Amino acid sequence: MSEAQELDQLRQQIDSLDQQIQDLINQRAHCAQQVAEVKQKYASPGELVVFYRPEREAQVLRKVMERNQGPLPDEAMARLFREIMSQCLALEEPLQVAYLGPEGTFTQQAAVKHFGHAVQCRGQVSIADVFREVESGAANYGVVPVENSTEGVVTHTLDSFFDSNLQICGEVTLRIHHHLLVKADAEPVERIYSHAQSLGQCRRWLDQNYPNVERIAVSSNAEAARRASKEANAAAIASEAAAELYQLRIQAANIEDRPDNTTRFLIIGRQATTPSGDDKTSVLVSSRNQPGALYQVLEPFHKAGISLTRIETRPARSGTWNYVFFIDFEGHRHDASIAPLIDDLRDVALDFKWLGSYPKAVL
Predict the structure, then answer these.
(1) Is residue 6 packed enough to be buried (19+ CB in 10 Å), middle (13-18) or exposed (0-12)?
(2) In the structure, what pLDDT confidence band is assigned to residue 326 with cuts at 50, 70 and 90?
(3) Percent of the chain with pLDDT over 90
(4) β-strand pairing of 179-182 with 234-238
(5) Which residue positions hold the site described Essential for prephenate dehydratase activity (predicted)?
(6) Is the pTM for the entire model greater than 0.70?
């Protein structure tokens, strides 16, 4: 058999498999439509029908990765299924997702990574605006950054939870690659625009390569790219997506100081999330200003054998030198081991607020 004949046989096999895959995807989409019909059929009058279930999607993606036998990597296979699920969900209800904009930000990339490309993403000027969009019902969910592995916590996001009744219903992590962007007709760089967090994440590189150039913090990396595209002698630190959007050239790629630079984002919504089997819980605990206050907050976790994944401190809104602890820990509030822990926290806390229990990031 010749090379051409062997290739022809393989291509016919691929065509046959493509037809089967396409038929199965459409069968899945039809099932998704039936799910929507059943939910609407049994909903009470005036009841808000919830089509997107974060815990269900997390369970599906975990199963995809567990049963995957290659040669595609587990995460690559899960990303394919994420897009299939996104398109199927759009047949039930197109989701409106607010994110920290404008278009081209890492937060938009995080939104697409978590929800897929079938959602309708709407950029907002500030983190506070993302919260307001979801609180008002103009958006189903919001995506906001909460911490970076290099620069630490995003305080505006934590502070937004003080007065909000929104709940955390998911998380997504994104590897962050920063690029120095300039116009195609390169000019001497006299100022560099970027978000304050990004400037911090590239501090050593900037000190070595542009020590005397002015660094200007702006509201987002996409805004930095927009300005660099309009001004002479300006550059921006932003993503590849922002470079394409604003027609800039990547003069230096991957300039972040740490190769593992990662940002964690929270998904915020109005509904609670039921257990997925591998969850986190986030709480806000206000302690009394007295010796041993932090120990009293942490001791119930030690007693229950619960692992903390993060603890941050912010000044309280009332009382000088009073503090609020933002705590993430493993488990769901409906787990048998978590309910007694929350009772113990309520006993020792001046104020306690449950922010949400949600699936751990799958991708």
Answers:
(1) exposed
(2) very high
(3) 74
(4) antiparallel
(5) 263
(6) yes
